[in-house]
Amino acid sequence: MDAALIDLGLRWAHFAAGIVWIGHNYANVAQRPRWQPLARAELVDPTNPSFLARLNREHGLFRWAAVVTWLAGMLMLARRDWLLPALTLQEGLAGNGLGAWIGTAMMLNVWLVLWPHQKKVLGFVPASVEERMRCARVTFLSSRTNTMLSIPLLFLMASSHHGALLTG
Amino acid sequence: MDAVRPGIPIDNTPRFRWTPLDSAGGTIALGLALTALIVALLRLLQ
C-alpha cells in the first residue's frame, strides 16, 4: 500500500479516535462542571444487567479510543523514524515529543488510575458505599486531569504544522 | 465488604480538599497555563 495512504489513515485514526476519547471528557465537564459528592440516585443498581451493559459499552468505547489514538500517534512518529528524536525532545521534534509524552500520560491515566476506580463506582466490582464515594473522587480528579492535559496536547497537535509560535 | 444495594442511603459523605480541577473554569485555566509554560519551554529548546 502507498506510504502516503498509510500515513493519511493513521492521521485520520489519530484525530477520529482522539475526538471520541477527549470528547467524552468534555461531555463530562458539561454535565458536571463542579465536583459534587456521589448521590444515592447515581449509584448503579448492580442487578440491572442492561444498564450495566450500556455503561460498560460507553466506558469501553472511550478507553479503547484512547489506545487507538495513542497507537496511531506513535506509529506516525515511528514510520518517519522520528520516535526516538521526538521522545528525547530533539530540535524540531520537541513539540511532537512533548505531545507524545502528554498523550502517553493521559492514556495511562485512563487505564491505570481512572478505570480501576471507575469499576467500583459503577458497580462492576463489589465495593462498600464508602469505597465507592472515595473512588468517585479519584475518577473525577483523574478525568479532570486529562481534560486539563488535553488543552496543551491539542495545541501541540495543531502546532506540529503551524508551529511559528514555537520557533520564535 | 458489603456490596451496595438499591435503597441504602449515603450517610457521612466525606469532604475532600478543594483543588482547581474541582471547577470547569479552574480546569481550563490550568490547561491554558500549562500550554503557555510549554510554549515558553519549546521556544527555549528550539
Main β sheet profile of chain B? none
The chain-level mean pLDDT of chain A equals 89
Q: What is the residue-mean pLDDT of chain B, rounded to a whole number?
A: 80
Strand proportion of chain B, as a percent range, falls in under 5%
> SSE order of chain A, as H and E?
HHHHHH
Structural class of chain A: mainly alpha
Distance between the termini of chain B: 55 Å
Low-confidence region ranges of chain A: none
Please compute the radius of gyration of chain B using only Cα atoms: 20 Å
Q: What is the end-to-end distance of chain A?
A: 38 Å
Shape of chain A: elongated
Task: Work out the oligomeric state of the chains in this entry.
Answer: heterodimer
Give a structural overview.
Chain A has 168 residues and is mainly alpha-helical. Chain A has one domain. Chain A is built from six helices and no strands. With 46 residues, chain B is mainly α. In chain B, 48% of the residues lie in helices and 0% in strands. Chain B has one helix and no strands. Chain B has one helix spanning 24-45. The longest helix of chain B is centred in the C-terminal third of the chain and has 22 residues, at 24-45. Classes of the chains: A mainly alpha (168), B mainly alpha (46). Chains A and B meet through α4, α5 and α6 of A and α1 of B.
Quick description:
Chain A is mainly α and 168 residues long.
Task: Identify the notable features of this structure and list them briefly.
heterodimer; A: 168 residues; mainly alpha; B: 46 residues; 1 helix
